[in-house]
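Long-time lurker, first post. I've been practising inverse folding by hand and with some scripts of my own, and I keep getting stuck on stretches where the structure tokens seem ambiguous. Below is the full token string for one chain I'm working on. Before anyone asks, I'm not after the true native sequence, just a reasonable design that respects the backbone. If someone could post their per-position residues I'd love to compare against what I wrote down in my notebook.
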């Protein structure tokens, strides 16, 4: 289809793709995605969200749009992060079914047909479960298992195993998510929280087509902690129990020292025991204050009420925007 053609509105399917420094993947992505979508024989649109990329991602997306009238580009004013870029894509989607996916082709476009088939059976959320974690080391796999275990035991929301953002959501599900006001957007938790009738398909995760991952160990750890604190207040509540336990042990130790002094007399206080007690209790206090501070910071962000993202420009296929 040429740029002179008009996209069908509203489309049946919207594919939402956050992009951050994915210039090397743009041509590879559309070379594989568009033939798959054409073969589905349903009206579709592709929404690419440029999340403040520092390379030529936007230029390559605009070049691709010249030959594809169903490509819409949301250019954010800066890098807001993948979760908020995904939120921007969902907000601008118009399809009756919406599929978020990554730009690096680790989410195979061919699996979209299976997602649509389940949706046509009446399921409102169809998530794609990877059969194995491709391109990850043992430490990353153990970290992921540990995160899921902790999240399931500390949160009221259970995350489906080995499921990322790649899934299909009905229009009513997307509208529900778009109405959710929170600024801390842990999308996997939000997708699980909304519920609705769910099904799954299994797919094989491919290797990254080009470029390098944007997540390092620190970002993954921060992302995991953000997810936990977004859906559980257990880290706050647990310190009440820890404080009670430490206070009880301290009280028993005081009683022990008093009895010992009455029986054997007062001995020279131990420097090591005092030092360890001060350092231990000081560390517990600082850790507690840090967790409280993280929750307080979230409250601060929510109270300010700033928008989730700022769109610098929306590039429509007809040249408007």
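-- Answer (accepted) --
I ran through it position by position. Result:
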């Amino acid at each position: 289809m040429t740029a002179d053609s008009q996209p069908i509105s509203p489309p049946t399917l919207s594919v939402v793709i956050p992009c951050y420094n994915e210039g090397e993947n743009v041509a590879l992505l559309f070379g594989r995605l568009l033939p798959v979508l054409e073969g589905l024989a349903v009206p579709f649109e592709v929404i690419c969200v440029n999340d403040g990329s520092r390379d030529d991602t936007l230029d390559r997306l605009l070049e691709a749009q010249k030959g594809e009238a169903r490509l819409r580009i949301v250019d954010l004013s800066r890098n807001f992060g993948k979760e908020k870029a995904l939120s921007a894509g969902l907000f601008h989607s118009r399809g009756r079914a919406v599929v978020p996916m990554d730009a690096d082709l680790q989410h195979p476009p061919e699996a979209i047909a299976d997602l649509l088939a389940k949706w046509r059976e009446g399921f409102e959320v169809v998530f794609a479960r990877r059969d194995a974690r491709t391109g990850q080391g043992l430490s990353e796999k153990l970290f992921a298992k540990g995160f899921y275990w902790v999240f399931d035991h500390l949160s009221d929301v259970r995350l489906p195993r080995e499921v990322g953002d790649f899934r299909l959501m009905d229009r009513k599900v997307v509208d529900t998510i778009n109405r959710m006001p929170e600024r801390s957007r842990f999308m996997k938790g939000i997708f699980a929280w909304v519920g609705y009738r769910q099904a799954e398909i299994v797919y094989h995760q491919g290797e990254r087509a080009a470029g390098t991952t944007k997540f390092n160990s620190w970002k993954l750890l921060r992302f995991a902690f953000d997810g936990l604190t977004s859906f559980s207040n257990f880290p706050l509540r647990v310190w009440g129990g820890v404080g009670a336990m430490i206070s009880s042990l301290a009280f028993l130790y005081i009683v022990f020292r008093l009895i010992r002094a009455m029986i054997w007399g007062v001995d020279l206080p131990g420097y090591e025991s005092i030092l360890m007690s001060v350092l231990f209790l000081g560390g517990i206090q600082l850790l507690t204050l840090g967790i409280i501070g993280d929750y307080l910071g979230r409250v601060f962000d929510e109270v300010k009420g700033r928008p989730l993202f700022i769109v610098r420009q929306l590039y429509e296929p007809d040249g408007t925007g």
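A couple of notes from the structure itself: The domain at 13-217+306-315 is CATH 3.90.550.10 (Spore Coat Polysaccharide Biosynthesis Protein SpsA; Chain A). The chain has two domains: 13-217+306-315, 234-304. Happy to go over any region you disagree with.
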